[in-house]
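Task: complex structure prediction.
Instruction: return structure tokens for all chains below.
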Amino acid sequence: MPPEPPKRVRVVLVDAAAPRGGGDHTRAELEEQTGIGEALVKGLVRTQLALALRCAAVVAVGLGSLPLLFAIAPAVAGTRPFGVVLPWLLLGVAAYPFLFGVGWAYVHLVERTERDFTDLVEKH
Amino acid sequence: MVTVATVVIGTYGLRVARTTSDFLVASREVSPAWNAAAISGEYLSAASFLGVAGLVLKQGVDVLWYPVGFAAGYLALLLFVAAPLRRSRAFTLPDFCELRLGSVRLRKLATLFVIMIGWLYLVPQLQGAGLTMQTVAGGRYQVGVLLVGCVVVANVALGGMRSITFVQAFQYWLKLTALAVPIIFLVLHWQADGRPPLAPPSGATFAHSTTVVFDHAATLVRPDGSTVDVPAHASMDFPAGTPIPQVRGVESSSGANWLLPGSTETGGGRDRGLFAAYSLILATFLGTMGLPHVLVRFYTNRDGAAARRTTLVVLGLVGLFYLLPTLYGVLGRVYTPQLLMTGDTDAVVLVLPGAALSGLTGQLLGALVAAGAFAAFLSTSSGLLTSVAGVLSTDLLGRGSVRDFRVSAVLAGLVPLVLALRAGGLDVSQVVGLAFAVAASSFCPLLVLGIWWRGLTAMGAAAGVTLGGGISLAAVITTVVGPPLTGWPAVLIGQPAAWTVPLAFLVMVSVSLATRRRVPVNVGLTMLRLHAPDPLRL
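Output:
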């Protein structure tokens, strides 16, 4: 990227109608699909996809391993923490907070990635 | 008493559904919390409300994957689809095909599958309606299906487009209350009874003296192995404490089979059971994103970030709801074991309050549950029928005029009505599971690859949807009308997702690679639009 001196920008609200000081350059690269712009988008897509796949892997391991676990270790399936048989406790109750937790973490992380990308575009 | 309540609730439901305004008018400015409640209200169907508890009652721990999968589907939607789909500005799946791949032919193909999946999903809703009428008002199953089917069709065709967000959101809280309040009473009652065991190793017994009415001739197998033949329409009295006989031909698990995973649901064989479990997980995890009435709702979010937040709240709301049906299924083991004999296990949610609690409390709670059931199939089937009639009228039959829409609504309603009349013997949740399998094998790869992979071509997408969706659809039809199968074919066809979903992905990728030259020229711009953070407004 050509070394342009960063301009001081006062951002009140992010609004399409608001005049923009900085960011025009990278923005143009993105919109015109130049080599740099395309590389930026590819990088963003790759980051987002990697994040989504990591979260999916957490669920795949956390929940997806259960049928196999119960099949190869029936003794585990027969234990009764809190007086409830383990598979009932895991699938009937614990699965839902777990799924929500993964979803919450994903939203948190993906919003951070997007903020970083926005900053990158707005500042250069 | 219950009948009166039902009629009152029915007319109320009609009135609510009639105070509709055009869905499109609801614009995009709906807050994530309201939007999420509305999506959940439309999503929690008869299968969730009645079917899950029925399956738990019958088959035990193995079917807990159904509700877990129904909820987890929203996580898959959140991770891979929600924000980019909203940013694509596609209203329906066919819209997405045209926007992303610029192919009108693919659009038509997607339309066809939207209609198929919508129909498949409507059948269990109508089944639930028939069952509720049968259980609550004492009418015939067919009459219930016809009545509710006609009401929904007339409502959608004449009444306008769709319930407004507020009504849908209200439906969610109604459904949650309708299950949550009675279960508190039921659990307290179970405590007061001295916590009768849920799965006694010696086999279940009747908790109260019970009269069982048999609609069809049946053969009972007593625990000691002796058999009794019962003629149709006969009734038998069982005093409290009698062991519950098995009915020949009615599948159900008991004792340890019910309590522990890896039951004989698929006719024996641990490998097959495991395959069925994973297939079901795959279908429900990946099928949600392909359901037509769910995707339409995402358009009402302000932007991609709001779509994500909405999906997260839906995941929370739906998860909260699914804590309840399991409890109904479990307590049904104690208080309504006769359903295992008559095969009407899907009715357990409706019957349980009246069976366990005596007097007015039981009747009132029974009416509340019935209200929830009506809300469940009215909201879901109206939403589905609107989606199906919408694509039918804009893409296949006409140009989307009001008259086209009405004709489409009638046509779109007739097919599932006929199917539901014939499919009375199938479990509600199982039919829904099949609809998920078709959605997961057709639209899931299309959406995921379309959003994340530049190399997708219209040819590849069409090949994958046709093959994956077509084969899973054929499997569903075989399951519903074909001859009964045993062994591996039964598992591979009864739970097809584990092989049809990878197949669809594989075909889509390889055909796309073979037609590499036909990748849309503007794919870079489309990708930018799908993935650029909302504040940039690119």
